[in-house]
Amino acid sequence: MTPGRPIQAYDFMTRILQISDPHILPEGQLFQGSLDTAAALRRLLRGLASLLPRIAPVDRIVVSGDLTETGCPAAYAHFSKLMQDSPLPWLAVPGNHDSRTAMRAAFAARDWMPAQGPVNWRQDLPGLTLLGLDTLVEGAAHGALSADSCDWLAEQLGSLNGRPALLFLHHPPMDTGIQAMNEIGLRTPGRLAELLRAHSGPLQIGCGHIHRVCHSTFAAHPAITAPGVSHSIVLDPDGRSSLSWAPGGTGAILHSFDGRFRADLITPADFGPPTPFA
Ligand SMILES: [Fe+2]
């Protein structure tokens, strides 16, 4: 696609649903001893399935990290079982609560899972390329990009040839307005900024980690974080709050591209029958 090309001349409408941070535990366990994250994922998938006829065509679901709370094989087995109800093929990048080894073992048969190294992947859909970028630093809450991941991304961006791209990574590279989350965001995002600033094609960034919507820009590209599946991180308007969570504030992001990007927030309010104005 060339810059300035009229929207109506674009040949494809491509939509992607982004869900984030389901924090699934082994069956029978609750998040923080009180929250049933599995039930929340079931509800969200059921709601999205019911909405599909109204938002179709949607090509994929992308899970932007923290698939599990514990990173253990039993949690991935539980996540896999729950995702059998996904109404669409899905892909995922790891978050800080994930384990690369356990995640790879659980999803080794999926076409997007690399056999080794960082869990970076690319899917070329009609009219849109999806890029998944692994920011996991095993055992740490913050994220970082390895030299391998930077090289991989440079290669992908270099071969897009104007194709629009959605870039998914768990850790937001930008200021999210929540100081405690910024401290565990993407460390040393300079190399990523360099690569993206040099990329002039249409590209939107989708992140997770903060369990709420923050719309911003990074390296001249639009960037958005997705809400969580079961709970949100509490807002920190004065920059001094301690890190807290609250149940709710859940949903998904519907990314659309029809010549330009749009990101719509979907919440459980969208799953019920609409009430027309009297
Ligand atoms: Fe999370």
Please explain how this structure is put together:
This protein has helices at 37-55, 73-83, 100-106, 147-158, 179-182, 190-197, and strands at 14-19, 60-64, 90-93, 121-125, 128-133, 165-169, 203-207, 214-218, 221-225, 231-233, 245-247, 252-257, 261-266. The chain is α/β, with parallel strands linked by helices and 278 residues long. It has one domain (12-234, 244-267): Purple Acid Phosphatase, chain A, domain 2. Residues 1-9 have low confidence and may be disordered. The site of fe (ii) ion has 7 residues, from loops.
By CATH, the superfamily comes out as Metallo-dependent phosphatases
**Ligand roster:** fe (ii) ion
How many structural domains does the protein architecture include? 1
CATH architecture: 4-Layer Sandwich
Tell me, what's the shape?
A: globular
In which order are the strands of the major sheet placed? 4-5-6-7-9-8
Structural class: alpha/beta
Q: Could you tell me how far the N terminus lies from the C terminus, measured between alpha carbons in angstroms?
A: 43 Å
CATH class: Alpha Beta
Low-confidence stretches: 1-9
**Element pattern in H and E:** EHEHEHEEHEHHEEEEEEE
Mean pLDDT: 94
Q: Characterize the main sheet.
A: 6 strands, mixed
Topology (elements, then pairings):
Blueprint: E1 14-19, H1 37-55, E2 60-64, H2 73-83, E3 90-93, H3 100-106, E4 121-125, E5 128-133, H4 147-158, E6 165-169, H5 179-182, H6 190-197, E7 203-207, E8 214-218, E9 221-225, E10 231-233, E11 245-247, E12 252-257, E13 261-266
Parallel strand pairs: 1-2, 2-3, 5-6, 6-7, 7-9
Antiparallel strand pairs: 1-12, 4-5, 8-9, 10-11, 12-13
The structure holds fe (ii) ion (FE2).
